[in-house]
Amino acid sequence: MKTSFQPDQIRSKKDLKELQRLMARTVMSPLTSTDRMRPKTSDGKSNTKSVNTFIKPNDRLTAFERLEIYNRQYWFRLQECFYDDFPGLRSVLGETRFRRISKAYLENTPSRSFTLRNLGQRLPAWLKKHPTFLGPNPRLALDMVALEWAHIEAFDLEAKKPFPLQQLEGKSPERIYLRLQPYLQLLELEYPVDNRLLLAKSGAAGEKVASNAINEPKKSRTKLKSNIETRPERVYLAVHRLDNTVFYKRLGREAFQFLVSLQQGKNLVQATLAAFRGSRCPIEDRPALIQKCVAHAATMTWFCEK
Amino acid sequence: MVDGGRPLHVLDQILEQYKVVQHGVSMYFGSADPLDREHLKKLKRLVKRTKTPWLSDHLCWGSVDGSFTHDLLPMPYTHAVAKHTAQKIKQASDFLEVPICVENVSSYAEFHASEMTEWEFLSEVAEKADCGILLDVNNIYVSSQNHSFNPYDYLNGVPHDRVGQIHIAGHSKFKKYILDTHDHPVLDPVWKMYDHAIRRCGHTATLLEWDDRIPSFGEVHHEALKANAFLDQIDSKIAA
Q: Which residue among A15, A34, A60 closes a domain?
């Protein structure tokens, strides 16, 4: 016989699932403008009534107030993490706009990963879909968020065994496929956000949240340098890691296109052709340029084994 | 749980000098969802790397339908939930090929659905899963104040032979509740409970948790060493 879910009777895994859905909806629902739990659910029902069905009051707190502790902790924790992960975006957009983005993004794209490291994973794509959040210079903000996510990836993605180029000797270029390190991130940017991020970070004292319990939003946040004028300038950037430190390396257009092609799985000939698509580099200089690029990438251990 | 970079480098340096016992926050044994096999595979790689003799995580839930709250949420203490949770602990232990200890969490809310006390629930889960217990004495104190129970009933009520490790920490008092903040020295009532716990459980590996507003290493170390005075008393009693 099919029975309807009663939040005060948890007698099966199915009941538990329904209870957890109900509680997660409440805990993850946005706070009011004064950082309190909302009195109504998203469909206009009373939150108090809903919470009373499954949470007990005690002699000091109502059921609503008890669950509100979790609701507030959820938002303070995630926003704090978001705040620490994207200082550059904060610097570009300013605190108010950034706060608006963090609330909207976290509400629309709840975390799908066991680790807070991945909290901003979908932010670059989400911002592209929601440009109204980005203010007067959306391209600058999109470039910045792309760089900040690339930085997170470059920090701890896998480093495979470097590939020794000597193994290529005697091999036909059409059969050479060079693989790039998983941590290497290649970005084509319209703004020199690498410089801007370094400037922004130089004004921030990285404040990390480690505790499980957060009762108030952090108040002593360091002001970022936000009045930095950034003029458009095409930048081809490799975000990479050396000795466990993340570096930003500007590349020439041809070197960038060459590496992107390799990353896409093209062979050496195809990658070389792609490198000079639309290039003004004299034909006689091209072999030396590719050789230089390959030598540099090898020095940086960007080529790796399968 | 990451694939490279500084975190793994630092871990490897630690492993060269110390024996490491893994402690996690993301297994969510109490979630209605099944265990995530990809997550378990990653965890197993880490278990092999650290050679941890056992692994601990919390008796809680924190995700549903693939969405994560990143919190250690309390559970309704029912027999059905205990059975489900114990099954997941067993499955995880079988897959990871290491024993598991489950840790009691601090909580701020209680469910109408609960059929037993938290310590009865913890005991039932541990017996059914045949797993260890990581007894967090500070969490017991925090929950006892928030839910008005006697913390010594909790300490007396768990199977002491299953306690593999003890956690102590500081907390923050607010007007109507206590929050488990790990940002203070251990408070006196918690030290008293710790004393009682090790008299019941015997000499037990103890960890001081201090992970927010962290003072100098010297101050944290000094606080951690206070536990030795209690442990020494137990040892001298046994010797006598």
A: A60
Q: Of B104, B184, B86, which Cα lies nearest the Cα of B144?
A: B104
**Could you give the ipTM of this predicted complex?**
0.96
Asked if A159 and A181 sit in the same domain, the reply is: yes
A110 and A17 co-located in one domain: no
Contact criterion met (CB below 8 Å) for A241 and A155? yes
- Find which of B60, B64, B220 to mutate to test the A interface (most A CBs within 10 Å of its CB): B64
Statement to judge: residues A142 and A248 lie in one domain: yes
Is residue A144 domain-shared with residue A81, that is, in the same domain?
yes
Fold (topology level) of B22-239? TIM Barrel (3.20.20)
Q: What is the pLDDT along chain A (306 residues), one digit of tens a residue?
A: 567 899 999 999 999 999 999 999 999 999 999 999 999 998 899 999 999 999 999 999 999 999 999 999 999 999 999 999 999 999 999 999 999 999 999 999 999 999 999 999 999 999 999 999 998 999 999 999 999 999 999 999 999 999 999 999 999 999 999 999 999 999 999 999 999 999 888 865 443 323 344 555 554 455 555 556 789 999 999 999 999 999 999 999 999 999 999 999 999 999 999 999 999 999 999 999 999 999 999 999 999 998
Asked whether A193 and A144 are in contact (CB, 8 A), the reply is yes
Contacts A215 to B, Cβ<8 Å: 172, 174, 179, 181
Long-range contacts of B144-153 (CB under 8 A, 24+ apart): B145/B177, B145/B178, B146/A58, B146/B106, B146/B107, B146/B108, B146/B177, B146/B178, B147/A58, B147/B107, B147/B110, B148/A58, B148/A59, B149/B117, B151/B193, B152/B193, B152/B196, B153/B117, B153/B119
Structural element, H or E, at residue A47: helix A47-52
Is the domain of A28 the same as that of A75? Answer: no
A178 shares a domain with A148: yes
Judgement on whether residues A238 and A128 belong to the same structural domain of the protein: yes
The reply to whether A288 and A169 lie within a common domain is: yes
Single out the residue in A60, A81, A104 at which a domain terminates. A60
Query: How far is the alpha carbon of A108 from chain B, nearest alpha carbon, in Å?
Result: 12
* Model confidence pLDDT, tens digit, residues B74-105: 999 999 999 999 999 999 999 999 999 999 99
Query: Inter-chain contact A7–B211, Cβ cutoff 8 Å?
Result: no
Tell me how crowded residue B148 is: count the other CB atoms within 10 A of its CB.
Answer: 11
Domain encompassing residue A275: 61-304
